[in-house]
Design goal:
The chain has one domain. The termini are far apart. The chain is globular and about 60 Å long. The longest helix has about 35 residues. Helix 3 runs parallel beside helix 5, helix 4 packs antiparallel against helix 5 and helix 4 runs antiparallel to helix 7. It is mainly α.
Length: about 200
């Protein structure tokens, strides 16, 4: 296998394995508020996350930015927790002053944190030139995220149908129950992670 293929595989596996639970939870927290018809909004948010983590990944791997691992590992579950709480609190996101557009901004900032987490792993694998490993790893991460988000979309749509069938007040209420339920579960897991990873 080529060097590029090796690092694409490493990036992909870094997202789709049990050790990547924190990144998967963050993607689930991001996806929890979207339905099929919201795909444009979801695309903006995912793109913002990609831009954020790509910037930090590049800076950290080249040692232009050095961040302590314990702090990064603590901040990652905090980004998940904040995203889950925002999901629950912002009930009328589209009707608000910013029409939900702020979400891409804070997701880009959180992407910076997650990129530093990716970099700590990638830095240990690079021996010489960083261009191919960095590009390949980032591409693999993106492919992994697409798979995770596609599975999340299918599961969330199924959950919407299940809740609607149980007559929980129609599709709008089913959607709200889904957002709150998924987000609350994510918040609980993220809070436990944050406590376990606290750097003090």
């Amino acid at each position: 296998m080529s060097e590029l293929g090796t690092f694409v595989g490493l990036g992909f596996r870094h997202i789709v394995n049990r050790e990547a639970l924190d990144h998967i939870l963050f993607l689930l927290a991001l996806a929890a508020v979207y339905r099929w018809e919201d795909w444009r909004d979801a695309l903006w948010v995912v793109t913002a996350f990609t831009v954020g983590h790509s910037i930090t990944l590049g800076l950290a791997v080249t040692d232009a930015l050095v961040l302590p691992t314990p702090v990064i590992e603590f901040l990652i579950p905090l980004t998940i927790l904040v995203t889950g709480v925002e999901n629950i609190a912002a009930r009328h996101r589209a009707a608000g002053r910013w029409h939900g557009r702020y979400r891409a901004g804070f997701t880009a900032i959180f992407g910076l944190v997650h990129g530093a987490g990716f970099a700590n792993y990638l830095r240990s694998l690079i021996a010489d030139s960083i261009v191919t490993p960095l590009f390949g790893f980032n591409l693999g991460v993106e492919l992994g995220q697409v798979i995770v988000l596609a599975l999340a979309a299918v599961l969330l749509a199924g959950l919407d149908q299940l809740l609607s069938a149980r007559r929980t007040g129609g599709s709008v209420m089913a959607y709200r129950w889904r957002v709150v339920g998924v987000s609350a579960a994510v918040v609980l897991v993220a809070a436990r992670m944050a406590v376990e990873r606290r750097p003090w």
